[in-house]
Design a protein that fits this description.
The chain is an alpha+beta fold. The protein is built from 14 helices and twelve strands. The strands form four sheets. The chain has a five-stranded antiparallel sheet, covered by helices on one side. A three-stranded antiparallel sheet has the order 11-10-12. Strand 6 and strand 7 form a beta hairpin. The chain is elongated and about 95 Å long.
């Protein structure tokens, strides 16, 4: 191993350590070679390198060889961001303490998180069969069964992602947190529903306990995903974070928040429409489902749902990288999609005249027919929800920060240029990558691959051809 390389962690196949001005991943049996991938020598770079290493290495095989490296906040041209800019020594130590957590503990916590979610799924599935509310079980009422099955499917997906570890653990944790935050209000509303016998059934109790277990699992996974906790920039308020974004990013993010606000507002009015017609041709249209026409406990649950939707989407819009913010926002959208599907299922089912305090005998005498429909406000809700989901897709595919902010090892500028040797006149870092932009490691979870010193030096000698670092990781 070269004298200027220090290995901190090693697994069955790969090793993670620090070079002169970068963090890198090597083959464990080929430490003399160039690193397979490498990242800037910053706290964010270390977090991205660790995330990549943990995602490709066999679980349980990682062992610590030396204390995690302390990252000097310098790049090729001095302090990153210029003189006087960057974290204090205390902030840097805090970041590195988080990034250097025991890998064995991280793997164990990931398994515990998945186990908690698994317990919640078992409780939730069992809770589908006993009495839920109103003397009926969920499986006997498809209009209520559908949303609960969607919640369970979302949490099951989160458990699978968490077990994969690395960036996928973060995605699963955020997706689950969004789902849990919004479903909290829905479960509160269910608890507030009046019961026919004065007590709620075992199905509701099991469902609530399942929510608690699933939420505990995704919360533990979010804490375990160390880079997740640093995505919000604490040095700036919300206005500063929006102001730091390019204008073409600010507009969609503001629209995302407005779409969530619109969906929350449209969630409250009546969605269900019933038209009653008699044999004589008389008709009457009745709407139902207004959130504020329910008992107080149900209103509280519905209001919590609306607040949670908007709050989660606001946090998602401020999250960095945007791809992880998209996972959080999509998690919040899942229960809302479930509610919309439930409403569509309801209009496909016959409605009893007893719901309008009309006996069957009276309905037969009048020749009463009841047709179901959805109010215009439901379609307004769907439009806002569709806009929110489309903007989440945009967040998934939106380009990251420009490559000019990247710090590369060995003092070499992107494109293989050496300062003071072969830099073209008017050169601006990142110009040579306009056709194939590369995202910084903090945004892509560790996929950026700056040029290696040896390759770039050879490129400079042959006329400044661009050199790129290779990748041996999948």
């Amino acid at each position: 191993m070269p004298d200027n390389v220090s290995i901190s962690y090693q697994g069955a196949t790969y090793a993670l350590g620090q070079g002169p001005q970068f963090y890198g991943i090597w083959y464990a049996t080929a430490l003399q070679s160039q690193p397979l991938e490498w990242w800037p020598l910053t706290p964010e770079g270390w977090a991205a390198a660790w995330s990549k290493f943990a995602s490709v290495e066999a679980p349980g095989s990682i062992r610590a060889l030396a204390p995690a490296p302390v990252a000097p906040m310098t790049g090729p041209a001095g302090p990153v961001g210029g003189a006087g800019v960057g974290p204090t020594a205390g902030q840097q130590a805090s970041w590195l303490t988080q990034a250097a957590a025991d890998p064995v503990r991280l793997a164990r916590n990931g398994r515990i998180s998945a186990a908690l979610i698994g317990l919640g799924l078992v409780l939730g599935v069992v809770g589908l069969f006993p009495v839920y509310t109103g003397g009926a079980s969920l499986v006997s009422q498809s209009v209520n069964l559908v949303p609960h099955v969607i919640y369970l499917a979302a949490w099951a997906l989160c458990a699978v992602l968490i077990l994969f570890g690395g960036v996928r653990l973060q995605v699963g944790a955020l997706l689950g947190l969004g789902t849990s935050a919004v479903t909290l209000g829905l479960f509160v509303a269910d608890v507030g529903l009046p019961s026919a016998d004065g007590a709620h059934g075992a199905g509701l109790v099991l469902g609530v306990l399942g929510w608690v277990a699933c939420t505990a699992g995704v919360a533990l996974a979010a804490v375990t995903g160390l880079t997740v906790r640093r995505r919000l920039d604490g040095a700036r308020g919300p206005a500063g974070r929006f102001g730091a974004q390019p204008s073409h990013d600010v507009v969609p993010l503001v629209t995302l928040i407005l779409a969530a606000l619109g969906a929350a507002i449209a969630f409250a009015p009546s969605w269900d429409s019933f038209t009653l017609r008699t044999a004589t041709g008389a008709s009457q249209t009745v709407t139902a489902g207004n959130a504020f026409a329910n008992p107080g406990a149900v209103i509280t649950g519905d209001v919590l749902t609306m607040i949670a939707l908007v709050a989660v989407v606001v946090v998602a819009a401020l999250w960095r990288p945007l791809r992880l913010g998209a996972a959080l926002a999509l998690g919040a959208a899942i229960p809302m999609v479930a509610e919309a599907i439930s409403a569509i299922v309801q209009i496909s089912q016959p409605t009893s005249p007893l719901e309008f305090d009309i006996s069957s005998a009276e309905a037969s005498r009048l020749g009463l027919t009841i047709s179901n429909g959805l109010t215009p406000m439901f379609w307004v809700f769907c439009a806002f929800l569709a806009t929110l989901i489309l903007l989440c897709v945009w967040m998934l595919v939106a380009p990251g920060q420009p490559a000019a902010s990247r710090v590369v090892p060995g003092g070499i500028l992107p494109g293989g240029y050496l300062p003071g040797v072969n830099v073209p006149s008017g050169y601006q870092p990142g110009e040579e990558e306009e056709d194939e932009p590369d995202e910084p490691a903090a945004d892509s979870g560790g996929d950026s691959q700056p040029a290696s010193t040896a390759e770039a030096s050879g490129a400079a000698a042959s006329g400044g051809a661009a050199a790129g670092g290779g990748s041996g990781l999948s």
